[in-house]
Design goal:
Largest sheet: 3 strands, antiparallel
Radius of gyration: 22 Å
Distance between the termini: 66 Å
Strand content: 5-15%
Structural class: alpha+beta
Strand order of the largest sheet: 1-2-5
């Protein structure tokens, strides 16, 4: 992968922005100190203009995980400009790849390329968030979905996998809570005996 594209793909995988939002992202929209990205607009490739986000919910604050913060920090330091587009080829250029090429396809005699699209990186982000145990409502807000129902419908399989783990998570939590209570009681009893 080209070095200039690393921040783009990191932002797609670890912030879950839509391609149109990535194309409109400005340096000023990223606050590394606060650890957030402000999504305020999108790029309409057909109309060749900046537009409102896909929905009202699309205007949002997206948290920056540490793995993305490091990548963005390095990217900002490498840029030759202090304002303008964050992920463009220049401060004003919105040119970006449609796919991350991962290797030759198994069919077609190796002439074709298999690739991951930016939108698939968004789905990966959502799946990682669900696997990490992020609440569906919070995920819906971070993704900019108009309702949590959209998130649940779109990522149904990942949510069902998490539901299968729910009883085990509850058991582990209750065991920890019970152990903590027993340790506290034991400490209190030891003080009384002293």
């Amino acid at each position: 992968m080209a070095e200039r594209d690393r921040a783009l793909w990191a932002t797609a995988f670890y912030a879950g922005l839509r391609r149109s939002e990535l194309m409109a992202l400005r340096i000023a929209d990223v606050d590394l100190a606060a650890g957030v990205i402000q999504v305020e607009r999108a790029w309409d490739a057909k109309g060749r203009e900046y537009v409102e986000t896909k929905s009202r919910a699309g205007r949002r604050t997206v948290p920056i995980p540490a793995v993305l913060r490091d990548s963005l920090d390095e990217h900002v330091l490498r840029l030759g400009w202090g304002e303008g587009l964050l992920l463009g080829r220049t401060a004003g250029s919105r040119s970006m790849p449609r796919r991350f090429r991962t290797g030759p396809t198994p069919r077609g005699g190796g002439r074709g390329w298999r690739g991951i699209r930016l939108h698939e990186a968004r789905h990966t982000f959502a799946s990682l968030m669900i696997a990490a145990g992020v609440n569906s409502k919070v995920l819906s807000t971070v993704l900019g979905h108009a309702s949590v129902a959209i998130t649940l419908d779109r990522y149904d399989e990942a949510v069902r996998a998490q539901e299968r783990e729910a009883a085990g998570l509850l058991d582990a939590y209750l065991a920890r809570a019970d152990s903590t209570a027993r340790v506290s009681r034991l400490g209190a009893e030891t003080e009384v005996l002293s």
